[in-house]
Amino acid sequence: MTQEELHHYHSLQEILSHGRLTALFQPIISLHNQQIFGYEALIRGPSDGPLHSPLTLFDTALKHDCLAELDLLCRETAIKRYGQLGLKEKLFINTTPVAILNSDYPHGLTLQYVEEAGLSAEQVIIELTEQYPIDDYELMRTATEHYRDMGFSIAIDDLGAGYSGLRTWSELKPDFVKLDRHFMQNIHEDRQKRQFVQSMIDIAQSIGCQVIGEGIEVRQEYITAQSLDMRFVQGYYFGRPNRNPQKELDNSLFAQRKETTIQRTGRPRANTLVSSLLTDLDPVRHNDTIEHISDRFQKALKLNALPVVDDNNRVVGIMWRDDFMTLYASRFGRELYGRKPIKDFMDKNPIVVETELPLKKLSYQITSQEAHHQHSAFVITEQGRYRGVGSLMDLLRQITDMQITMARHANPLSGLPGNVPLSEHTREIIEQNRDVTVCYFDLDNFKPYNDIYGYGKGDKVISLTAKTLTEHVDQEIDFVGHVGGDDFIILFESKDWRQRCQKILEAFEALYPQLYNLRHLQQAGINAVDRHGNETFYSLLSLSIGAVRILDFPNIQAEIDLTEYASKAKSMAKRIAGNSLYQLEATEKNMINQKPKIRLVTEK
């Protein structure tokens, strides 16, 4: 042991013997209500000693097998001080899984400390740091469930910086995940970071978990976090760690206007489906012997798994390389198991997904999946038959690319996909001869409204229209795009598209009280100057919808053909006063289905 190591050891013993630790508290902010949601307890060693830094302190404790004892002292110090401060917000307490899993760790004392400090278990979040790797996930799940049973919540700290963040998230199913500060630093200048963070937020929301962005230091980072609909943040911009932390926030810290978020809606393109991740890999049969599997793994050293199928080419399991080597390399493993079939040893519950599954759904499935030996690969099928395999890294890369593409071509006002992704979707639909009805939406009397109420209210009309459209489509199969200005398009694959359009028109009419003053509502319109300089009365804003079912027109072979028909349908709809839907048909005679304030018209 060097002199420095000996000095560190004696300092550690003094800290443990006399409790010479200081607890600091940094606020965690709720962006939804712009208030302090809780505080993270941060521990410091004596300021006049070599172990003031928590990193050096914990590394020294690990080296001398005192980690559990130090971890417990940190908890006691933080909880006691928090009780003295009389704070009612949530308290986040850091702990390392290595300490919890220590066989000598005294369980039950945390609840005792909490009760002695006048706090409740529901007020405390146990925050797991991944400074050291987790080896026993089963034991870790048992430990965290023990805390949950007592009323504590669970958080994972520094997601993305530890040893196995995604797997820990999947295995432990925490209530909170804290994104490492690397992803928040300069996020306003890094599009890839924004898309990665957005993906993590989407996954978290789907499984009932909350994301906390750490390391917010400048206003632009905070505004970007807010625009991504991140619920909680933490960092020097809002407050530094302090023994006597602030209890109120300066309102000037918060943005006055929330940034537009990107609307994500519509049927995925081919490169956003599981089929885009497909890698060919010959499977093994369920009756193949262990010796045969050994040959396959030895011939492909980078192969980490082998799918197992039955005689009908249906997936029945997967054999992971690590599990196989543990079995086969054991003493007498080859002699004992060599001639036995793989079906007796395989993982019978692999992740199996169809080629047409959207990638986002796959990511949800992986993060909410029950424990598996690995999550680095999954099996891909088509109509129940084996097709190949996919990897987790390819999935994350593809999701990030999707988000980048969406952000690059989104309309800045509505957040909806613009002309580029709209054209791509349209071409794909025509090429695949899918049964889609194209609805072209146009706002009537929008210019005079802008002239009277100003561009601020005009922008509000566009935003509310976009929101109304996205709320009434099937997010899985329909696509909403913003052509520009006051023109929108929905590519409907929903069979009930007429009913959806009617609900859109009704919802749009319900917006009038937000858009007009009482006088204009009473007279059902406004007076404004037309393009010739004459004062003219204009009715209230309305939506005209021109609809074209692509399969009704065999001569639609390209996007330009469809545009011609859709424009004609929209023009016919605009001839009808008020909110209206006009379907252009090639085979039926004119039909008019009148409903109050909503007109459905078709033309031969």
Automatic annotation (TrEMBL):
<protein>
    <submittedName>
        <fullName>Diguanylate phosphodiesterase</fullName>
    </submittedName>
</protein>
<dbReference type="InterPro" id="IPR035919">
    <property type="entry name" value="EAL_sf"/>
</dbReference>
<keyword id="KW-0129">CBS domain</keyword>
<dbReference type="InterPro" id="IPR043128">
    <property type="entry name" value="Rev_trsase/Diguanyl_cyclase"/>
</dbReference>
<feature type="domain" description="CBS">
    <location>
        <begin position="346"/>
        <end position="406"/>
    </location>
</feature>
<dbReference type="Pfam" id="PF00563">
    <property type="entry name" value="EAL"/>
</dbReference>
<dbReference type="InterPro" id="IPR029787">
    <property type="entry name" value="Nucleotide_cyclase"/>
</dbReference>
<dbReference type="InterPro" id="IPR000160">
    <property type="entry name" value="GGDEF_dom"/>
</dbReference>
<feature type="domain" description="CBS">
    <location>
        <begin position="277"/>
        <end position="336"/>
    </location>
</feature>
<dbReference type="InterPro" id="IPR001633">
    <property type="entry name" value="EAL_dom"/>
</dbReference>
<dbReference type="InterPro" id="IPR046342">
    <property type="entry name" value="CBS_dom_sf"/>
</dbReference>
<dbReference type="InterPro" id="IPR000644">
    <property type="entry name" value="CBS_dom"/>
</dbReference>
<feature type="domain" description="EAL">
    <location>
        <begin position="5"/>
        <end position="255"/>
    </location>
</feature>
<dbReference type="Pfam" id="PF00571">
    <property type="entry name" value="CBS"/>
</dbReference>
<dbReference type="InterPro" id="IPR050706">
    <property type="entry name" value="Cyclic-di-GMP_PDE-like"/>
</dbReference>
<dbReference type="Pfam" id="PF00990">
    <property type="entry name" value="GGDEF"/>
</dbReference>
<feature type="domain" description="GGDEF">
    <location>
        <begin position="434"/>
        <end position="586"/>
    </location>
</feature>
